[in-house]
Amino acid sequence: DAPSASEGDAPAAPSDGLSISGRKQIKREWYQSGTHVYVTIFAKGVQQDACKAEFKDQEVSVSFPLPGSADEEYQLDLQLCDAVDPAQCKCEVSKLKVELCLAKKHAGVQWRDLEKREEVAYTPDQPAYPTSNKQKRDWSQIETDIEADLKNDKPAGDEALNKLFKEIYDRADDETRRAMNKSFQTSGGTVLSTNWGEVASSDYEGKDRPTPPEGQEWRDWRKKE
Question: Which of the ends of the chain has fewer CB neighbours closer than 10 A, N or C?
């Protein structure tokens, strides 16, 4: 089929072919109709019998010796955007150009480009909205991460003091724990001692009761006023 504007031709801007040292670059361009894609290589004086073309489902290659040179050759290999029918493709040589006529395997489909573009791997971001997709979680790793965060999170003020007391209590023997419990509970939280020999004989609710902070007074919460 001869291409025509009514068939949806999509001519492309000329592009460079192989750059030959000491020679002007060989230009090429492509355009399409509803049934065919045409690739034109602007090379003069190419011999028909010296031009070799190979067509595959989605590949095409063409090569020929450059006129006036015994050792330079033009080579073009294309990974096509869409499939073609190799049996219906052909290569035509004239005095001014070499033209590849590629029969579309999917007639009527307009190619966005001549060559296949490399696909970039895409990993979608995790959705911010709730999803029903089931995800496996490594709970042991999560627990390890939490413990590490807690160790790195340094408490301050009362929290730091309570943490220190807890660590002392956890590492203490039974006698030390008795001393801590009795001194703290009977003194209303004003005394904390780890010396059981001292605490055992002390009366923090009576004669050994510490002086309350300024502005405060002792009251027995067990007695109703």
Answer: C
Write the pLDDT tens digit of every residue in 150-193: 666 666 666 766 777 777 788 878 888 888 888 887 777 777 78
Q: How far, in Å, CA of 129 to CA of 3, rounded?
A: 51
* Contact between 45 and 67 (Cβ < 8 Å): yes
C-alpha distances in angstroms, 2 versus 58, 69, 111, 149, 160? 22, 34, 17, 72, 87
User: What domain count does the chain have?
Assistant: 2
pLDDT at residue 60, as a whole number: 96
Give the CA count within 13 Å in the CB-facing half-sphere of 188.
16
Instruction: Tell me the pLDDT tens digit for each residue of 153-163.
Output: 666 666 766 77
Instruction: Identify the CATH number of the domain in which residue 84 sits.
Output: 2.60.40.790
Residue 61 placed within a domain: yes
CA distance 156 to 161: 8
The domain of 87 spans 5-103
